[in-house]
Amino acid sequence: MYITKLDGIGFFGRGNTRLGRHHDVGAKIVTMSRLVAARGVKDNSDRIDAMDEATAASIIASRSFTCTQCGKCCTGSGEVWLSAEEAKTMSSHLNLSMDVFLERYTKKYARREGWYFVKQRGGTDDCIFLEKDQTSGLHLCRVHQVRPTMCRTYPWWPPLLNEDTWQEEKETTCEGFDHDDAPEIDLEQAMADYRESVRYIQEREGANIVRKAKKVGQKKKGFGS
Question: Is 185 helix (H, G, I), strand (E, B) or coil?
Fold first, then answer.
């Protein structure tokens, strides 16, 4: 469930690394790539909510989902975005100063001001907050109560409303998709998660882009350079 690529770097994604192609979502084409940092859509501000809510609700109502706590959505290549506001909430939850939390648990997302990536556990592709209960064997999130928006709204992300993408995620990442023991969909909550994921993407895409300072003496590329 980590992230893939949006403005060139991301929507959501984690685990499955094969979502690097175009999918027809509703009437519009959405570009996704999980290969680097987030599942995403280039210039998504007008594309990401191109699907009207009635269509989105109809698709979601036809799906089923339950979390089996397998932990697969919290492992694999990809990243998890974290806004400054979310980082503040999580640092408070862990009784840490913001500076200590950022140093210990995040890496700065250099392209968008005020955004971070959650670190992976050393030597693995596992989220640093993922823990395994030794008794039950189930995977638990250390910060589940205050987990990032992209984790909290999974799997009701815009790209996953596409049937092919849903099936691929089901086959490669999440065994809870269309699970036999899944309860009836709470459509109101699922739609709230869908709207929140759209808002979250737009918020991130609206953040200032950090421009790298040009090195002294560096020539400008182009004609005459």
Answer: coil
Amino acid identity of residue 80, one-letter, is V
* Per-residue CA distances from 208 to 36, 203, 220 (Å): 20, 10, 23
And the tokens for 178? 């269309």
What is the mean pLDDT of the segment spanning 23-32? 32
pLDDT tens sequence across 74-115: 998 888 999 999 999 999 999 999 999 999 999 977 688 899
The Cα–Cα gap between 23 and 160 comes to 10
Is residue 211 within a helix (H) or strand (E), and if so which, with residue range? Answer: none
Of 104, 99, 101, 105, residue with least CA distance to 117: 105
Burial label for 55, CB within 10 Å (0-12, 13-18, 19+), is: middle
Name the pTM for this structure: 0.72
**Residue 141 identity:** C
Q: Which two tokens stand for residue 77?
A: 């290549």
Q: In this structure, are strands 28-31 and 130-132 parallel, antiparallel, or unpaired?
A: unpaired
- Quick: pLDDT tens for 167-196: 999 999 999 999 999 999 999 999 999 999
134, HSE (Cβ side, Cα atoms, 13 Å): 0
